[in-house]
Amino acid sequence: MRWSETLIPTLRNPPKDAEAASHKLALRAGLIRQLSSGVYTYLPLGFRVLAKVIGIVREEMNRAGAQEVLMPALHPAELWKRTGRYETLGQDKLAFKNRAGHEFVLGPTHEEVVTEIAAAYFKSFRDLPRTLYQIQTKFRDEARPRFGVIRTKEFIMKDAYSFDTSDAGLDLNYRKMSEAYHRIFTRCGLSFRVVEADSGMMGGKMSQEFMAECPYGEDHVAISPAGYIASVEIAVRADPCLKTPAPQSQKPEVFETPHLRTIEEISHRFKIPAAQLVKTLIYMADEKPVAAVVPGDSEVNEPKLRRLIGATALRLAAAAEIQAATGAPVGFAGPVGLAIPIYCDWDIQGMADFAAGANVKDQHMKYVNLGRDFKAAAIGDIRFVKPGDKARDGSGELRLVTTMEIGHVFKLGTRYTAQLDAFYLDEKGERNAIIMGCYGIGVNRILAAAIEEHHDDKGILWPEAIAPFQVELITVNEASEEVRAAAHKIHAELTSRGIEVLYDDRDERPGVKFNDADLIGIPLQITVGERGLKEGLVEIKQRKDGQVRKAALAEAVSAAAGLLAAKHS
Description:
Number of helices: 14
Largest sheet: 9 strands, mixed
Structural class: alpha+beta
Number of strands: 29
Oligomer: single chain
Radius of gyration: 29 Å
CATH superfamily of the largest domain: Bira Bifunctional Protein, Domain 2
Shape: globular
């Protein structure tokens, strides 16, 4: 392919609002163009990378025994309402009514749709096991699209779904998919970690995330010196075994806080450290009000809280529910005087004479103490872990690493099949719900993760397997007939060997061509110039390490092919 015939709009500088390295370089290298917030067009080079990634994903999914389908992006809302996820999606869903008044959801995921397929066709144990997958565009109304294609409103996913008659069958398919994911991400040149994770709105009894380290990722992973690793959503810490200090006060004192609702506002106005304030949040646990109390500089971890309570469902209370439970509007809840169960984090045991809401509008109180002024229904680990927390495995302190989720695998069990009537008849003729697993990969994110991991101050360093081309052929003085003839010969020979070549045939200064070549990051660069040809030589540069070697013109193709082959060995 010739550069002059290809849309490659390289930029010297990225837009000012680009923060992540992958976002800056994808824009500068002409891979993507933003249409609106969180919505991107993939230009020729970017699309070729996506195609390479999709090809690897497809090969490994087929190798694992999955069958490819293509499901609709447009889902009847009724299907989502049957599983209860219509409300769970909240404002993240993109929904609308058609001209007939029927409501639809633009699919952010396809559990409901694929389960409808299973209900229609998998009627007997003889029809199982099966694994179906697709590579499809998904949609969500992301509140804060950021970092280019890392966090978007429209994205490409590979999602697979396994259907089994037993937990043992699910375990086998789960392992197959996990092994396939290891091969996919390794082939794409990514370093990654597999971490225990929370299943979230997907439901099910177990899930793991495949995480790529990325300073602009939206996730964090907690790691202990001994190798414990988990998503912060479920990461645990050791019980600090704190003893409550003796209070220096006789009783709590109320102070006025007009229009001051947040920890930050109270801390700033009254010069009280956030760690000496407590945050009291009202939740509905199985539709009954409860209070969660954590230090002011911490956040409630809802899955941990749900487990401590022993609740099936947990959600933040609405404003009217908070008013009913506390007697005050949002922002003034505190543990003293509450008539609902109170669940405290371990850290509260180590605090004395702290400040909290007073359950009265525009009022807080100070000199509050656990035990003396209020009782806890239970005390446990209900906040997100922080750097420096003691690891539960006793190996030392936890550290947090910023990561980007590139894959997620779930054991769903019968979460969807039982609700959508996906049953099969077993050998005894008894009716059972099909057991499901779900396995997702963010295709766009592989592109971003690869750039984040493989770049330098000049541009991208593509792993060969997903590079848009294997070789970039560069001419110095395209106007020279001798240079053009040599370049055409090399281009033809490389192409005949099945090697993908981008031929930079532009009438540009050498510096522009070399800078663009380093920017777009194709693994090998072959430079043909008049000076070299006088000696019968061309230059071959490996983009990754910058190593340059000279090769005889007649041997240039063989030398390039040898270098590419060496990368595979």
